[in-house]
Hints:
The structure is a single chain. The strands form five sheets. Strands 5-4-13-14-15-12-16 form a seven-stranded mixed beta sheet. The longest helix has 26 residues. Helix 1 runs parallel beside helix 9, helix 9 runs antiparallel to helix 10 and helix 13 packs across helix 15. By secondary structure, it is an alpha/beta fold.
Amino acid sequence: MTAPATLETDVLIAGGGPCGLMLANELGRRGVRCLVVDRKPGTAFNPQANATQARTMEHFRRLGFAHRVRAQGLPADHPTDVAYLTRFAGHEMARLRLPTAAQATQMIRGLGGSWSAAELPHRVSQKFVEVVLRGEAQALPGVDLRYGWELRGFSDTGEGITAEVAPVEAAGAAGPGLTVQARWLVGADGARSSVRTRLGIEWEGGTGFKRSFMGGRMLAVYLKAPDFYRLNPNDRAWMYVQVHPAQRSFIMSVDGVSEFAFHTQLADDTDVEALTHDDARALFVRASGLDIAIEVLSMAPWLAGHALVASRFQHGRVFIGGDAAHLFTPTGGLGYNTAVEDAVNLGWKLAAVLKGQASPALLDSYGLERKPLAQRNTGYARQFADSIGLFDAVPELDDDTPAGQQARAVAGEHLDAHVRREFNVPGVTFGGRYDGSPVIVPDGSLPPPDAANSYQPTACPGGRPPHAWLADGRSLFDLFGFEWTLLALRDAAEDPAPATAGFEAAALDLRMDLRVVQPDAAQAPGLRSLYEAPLILIRPDHMVAWRGSSDAEASRVMRQALGWSG
């Protein structure tokens, strides 16, 4: 029998969803070879996640394709409102009005405070995002994407990874496989991750939370309903949430025309294996109050009520990320966005170690930084799920009576507060921090309190750099380098520029790519006071690694930030 052919690469990635594809983009742009294998024949068919948070959009902007993502999904003039109703075409009780994609690109320049950002959120199905991520990744030299391939097994030799990959079996016959020799393996292979299972990594946290909604058995239906908007008397929205004593559901527009993602709560004793397309149609009619023709494109049961985080994110030369490392109930849309930031965090670190710029100890910081963030975010998602799922929909809620009207008024008060709690989350979006990380150099300051619905910009090391728009219309973030950035800030144009030579020399010694950015004080008024220091070192993942007033200890700072000490 002929031995399988051998392929050498730097990083083997199991899973071609958002985490795996984002990691391939981060690595490929740094000249790191990677092989991505995924059992699916291509990118996602089903809508899956439907909300891209502003921080994720900032990362897409950093890579140069935020505009391509924003062009996907809903038409540019389609409302992105979230509405709460007794049925999708029934009594409306609360609504959060949100900007269209076209409005978002204009509004963002006039926002400040909690929403001072380079990008606003975008309502777009994961299936469209994956197409963009795949197109960007496969255009990079050294990135090998293989859909319809699976990871069959792997071993960690201590010096590298030896793995077996092969085409997924078709018609009972397996295609020829490959032996892969890689330096590192990343399991981004979903909730049922074979990589995590093989490593014996346990889940921590909670699961099986029971709620009237978003807890227990759910049914996801991807469908076409061409008459939904035309016959719905309520204002158009991106998402409609049904709050009704007999049924709890939600529906999100996929294309702004006729395609929708419909999710409905099922009774615990439902025989999900016996559900048919006719059953799905009946559930949709009950939830919508519209007896219209629909086409079921796909349907599958799923389980809500998770707040799980892997006990560790690394074992030897193997890492896990995305759903392989954390499972959410999808309130707040945090799972996919957390997965993207896993890839952003790990990508630059793997590249720096592979290039000899950083100590291998830098990779230990991946789990140290990302696990607390996953615990934080799953906790927020659980709070949002409790807020909507434990709300009691009283029997008279849908009645056309004075009692029904009163019940809807009471429900509307709760739902109005809830929708802002779940969908206006700048604190969740921008406030994630890596305090206590060994590769963050503290300055003795304390960050503002973590709060879901408000965000106080701060350059306290360990968090996102404060954003600002420059006088010429550019985002400050657009000045940052792809790798490391040293911000050198002056109070006024006539003030002397802070010395940066120590950092430039240290970067040369460590073979780091460092861009020194010295915004003109007239172009960026108030930037010095916003950052509260003249010098700020910003990591490739756009997190503040250090800030201070002098370059005297530049070598120590940069060595610690790369894992050489500290």
